[in-house]
Amino acid sequence: MNSLAEKFAELGKALTQNAEAIARLTELNGEEESDLGELTRLFNTLTSYNIIHGNEVEGFSASSVLVELSYLLNKQETNRRLSPDVNEWLAQLQLKISQLNQAKESKNTRTYGQHLTDIRGMVFLMRDGIGNEVRSIEIALHTKFGHVESIADKQAENKYLINRLDRLTKKLLVLDLQTLNDLAGSNPELRKILSVKLFRSIDDCREAILASIPRLKHLLWEFEKQSKDSKRVWAFYNHFRTHSQGFKYDPTDDELTELVLPCHTDNNIKELAADVENQSYFASHIDLLNTLKPRHELNLDQNQESKEPPNFEGEANSEELIEYSDRMEAHLIEMLRLSKVERVSCREYWKLNLGETGYPYGFMSYAYKELNQIKSLKTKRKLTVKTKKAFEQSATVSVTDLILEPLS
Amino acid sequence: MNLRNVLEKLYNEKKFICPYTDEECYEFLETNEGQIQIDAAMAVFDRKLTRVNENGAFYLTSTAPEHATDRLLLKKEFLKVRDEIEPVVEFLVFISKVKSDAGVLVSGDIIRYAEILNLVTDNELHLKHLNQLVQLSAFKTVKKSTTDKLIALFDGLERLNLLVVKNRSEMLYQITGKVDYIHTVMEFIAEYEVIAVDEEEAEQIELAHE
């Protein structure tokens, strides 16, 4: 076991044996406390590594490392481990590099190795920190600051993050490739750590931050809008409570145009024709037709029987009593008219007059319903309904054709 | 995407298309190609595709608002939406009182009927508020039970296209993008009817009246 591993093992024991006291200290967030109950001998290990500060006389307090660790264990703010202050970090790095160079000149391999490890640790901290910054932004953007409840807090967090990222981007600009190359000098190990690994992380982070700032600003705009909308809802609510007359303002045409309101055409003026040929709409058409209000009953005596059979062509539309409220009604009347003198198949009629093949399901279901409502039909026409089963064992049948014939 | 289906939804069914009402259709309309196709198809009717706040739900608007017919239709639409404001506001405030952590609902927010029913049943004030709500014509019902009154409320909002059912069996609803349109109209009305939205505005209005 190497010495570092042994130190971890010792630290683990110290943490285990003094867990109660440590938990109490972390709750105090850095405040001193002298009465921690019974402490074990290994508690001194924690103070020797500066994980816990103080002594028995003045009292103990938790270090920032311990407080941060407790946050992590509580699964709170796991993404808030931010990058160190760049200027301070840079100054420390310069100090470490000069110590490393001195160790190299004095050919002290042990000290050199130690300083190199420290530098690696510092670079790791910076890379880890900026990586966390980017992850933290992504989470905030993705969840729209879901960890914060109120809109006001979301706005505040968003503003803080924008300011922080703005400052961080400027600071990261300090760590450009030239600076890192100058720091690394001709040392190949430092070049690998600083100019390659660190610079790549910084570059990726800078790009991610720059891409995130507009998104954050947009999110901030959304929060501001949401806040304003929310206030407006309450203002209207109060208005309805105090003003019983409702709204009076009559907007001008220009104001209405500027408001870009939806312009819904009345469907009886301009409409898209129903796709009666499409079998997949058949059920919808049936449902739709069943919801329609009953039409005027077609009166064969009034509308049709008064006309002489040879003069039928094209005259139906001139009948004043018949209101052709739609295309289907017009075709049904035409079919009835023709059927006075000849056998008329609904399917054939559809094919001949509309040039469409296939089953006119919509029309047939409409015609079937209407014809069944004409009480006088039985005395004037013979109606044959052709059906087929939807499938072999089915009890459901669908109408495939309607045939109207004059009664002989 | 079937262009005919999209056109029918926009033109015949007069729908606001947002990601919560029709995700597939919304994605199609978000594309350049989709917008070009719709605009081309609708040009003959003097209609074009537009969006609430330029990034919200899609709907059709007139390209010829100066024409008498469209001017009349726009006026009718304004009067219609103006009448929808009160029930919408009452509902938003009701939910925000019943479920205080929800705040004022925004498009995309989910509402669970069962959760609201539990909260309402446990509170006399909420029950009273619900009774007031079902007096509004948009939610009017003759039913007596809280369950039925709440259903009447949700049904009314569905009819107003403000709510869309996400799961019928679990009675899970979602606020649609139409709410943003209502907010836009409210913003306009607030300006002309002099309704103070925040404290600063309220003070200014008071000073103007003095």
How would you describe the overall organization of this protein?
The complex is a heterodimer of chains A (408) and B (210). With 408 residues, chain A is mainly alpha-helical. In chain A, 59% of the residues lie in helices and 7% in strands. In chain A, the strands form two sheets. In chain A, strands 3-5-4 form a three-stranded antiparallel sheet. In chain A, strand 4 and strand 5 (397-406) form a beta hairpin. Residues 301-325 of chain A have low confidence and may be disordered. Chain B has 210 residues and is mainly alpha-helical. In chain B, the strands form two sheets. Chain B has a three-stranded antiparallel sheet. The radius of gyration of chain B is 19 Å and the shape is globular. The termini of chain B are far apart. The model of chain B has no long low-confidence stretch (mean pLDDT 89). The chains are: A mainly alpha (408), B mainly alpha (210).
Q: Largest beta sheet of chain A: what is the strand line-up?
A: 3-5-4
Q: Determine the most extensive contact between two protein chains.
A: A-B, 39 and 52 residues
Specify the biggest β-sheet of chain B: 3 strands, antiparallel
Order of helices and strands of chain A: HHHEEHHHHHHHHHHEHHHEE
Low-confidence stretches of chain B: none
Topology pattern of chain B, helix = H, strand = E? HHHEEHEHHHEEHH
The share of residues in helices of chain A is 55-70%
Question: N- to C-terminal separation of chain A?
Answer: 112 Å
Query: Uncertain regions of chain A: pLDDT < 50 for 5+ in a row?
Result: 301-325
In spatial order, strands of the major sheet of chain B run 3-5-4
Compute the number of helices of chain A: 16
What is the count of DSSP helices of chain B, taking H or I runs of 4+ residues?
Answer: 9
Query: What is the alpha-carbon Rg of chain B in Å?
Result: 19 Å
